[in-house]
Write a structure and sequence with these properties.
By secondary structure, the protein is of the alpha/beta class. 45% of the residues lie in helices and 13% in strands. The longest helix has 17 residues.
């Protein structure tokens, strides 16, 4: 009801716009798309390698390489499949651990049981809430971010990782191609073999990781919050200026 009565309707992706047309019955010409924005002054590459080493030692007890998942532990993000895929990767002697960040956010995923069942207790580390000041270290210290969500309006962890120059894996669905295509490694689905192959492809290809590290901040610069805020103002100011006294 609110969307249908609003003077201006705005959403964060073309995917979300299509969903609003489909489910709300709003005419597409009424819906503006302004993407999510990232603070590139906070989320940026960290060149101080010692600070990254210190963070890994604090988190794992040693300077351990890792891949990271960031977000609510909900099953539409295929966390259980990711853990199983990671387990298959570990059997091939990859040294990385898996770090799950955001485990205390609402979700209800049985992922802890999967970790135990797969015998990965020593190879998976779990963190709860991490604030914005520490999150750049989470991304920069990782070898890659993987965010295998089946449905997102946008998908901020992928953009944040790109802004930090961290290689990112997501799925080739919903909103991810709109901002990640050509930079993030986009997978066809979240089946365990697909996730395993995606992880191993990125970890095994140094030139691919280097290209993703270089191109990520360049792409993310187009989504800087200062740019995005200006686009929102361009939508809102005409509404304010024409509002009755």
């Amino acid at each position: 009801m609110s969307a249908n009565r609003a003077t201006v309707v705005c959403t964060v992706s073309e995917h979300s716009k299509r969903e609003m047309v489909r489910f709300y019955g709003i005419k597409p010409e009424r819906i503006h798309v302004v993407p999510e924005g990232v603070d590139t002054r906070t989320f940026r590459p960290v060149r101080d390698l010692q600070s990254l080493t210190t963070w890994r030692v604090k988190t794992f007890g040693s300077d351990t390489p890792y891949i990271v998942y960031v977000g609510k532990p909900v099953e539409r993000r295929n966390l259980s499949a990711l853990i199983k895929a990671f387990g298959l990767t570990k059997r091939k002697k990859f040294p990385q651990k898996l770090l799950i960040v955001g485990s205390d956010l609402a979700g209800g995923s049985p992922f802890r049981e999967v970790i135990a069942t797969e015998g990965l207790t020593k190879d998976v580390a779990i963190l709860g809430y991490v604030n914005n000041q520490e999150m750049p270290l989470v991304y920069n210290s990782a070898d890659l971010l993987i965010y295998p969500s089946s449905y997102e309006g946008f998908g901020m962890p992928v953009l944040e990782a790109m802004a930090c120059g961290t290689p990112a894996i997501a799925l080739n669905n919903t909103s991810f191609p709109e901002f990640g295509a050509g930079v993030a490694h986009l997978l066809a689905d979240a089946q365990v073999p697909t996730l395993q192959q995606g992880i191993e492809t990125v970890l095994s290809d140094a030139s691919l990781r280097q290209r993703m590290s270089e191109e990520g901040p360049k792409r993310a610069a187009h989504y800087d919050w200062r740019i995005i805020a200006r686009r929102y103002l361009d939508l809102m100011l005409p509404v304010v200026n024409t509002a009755p006294d």
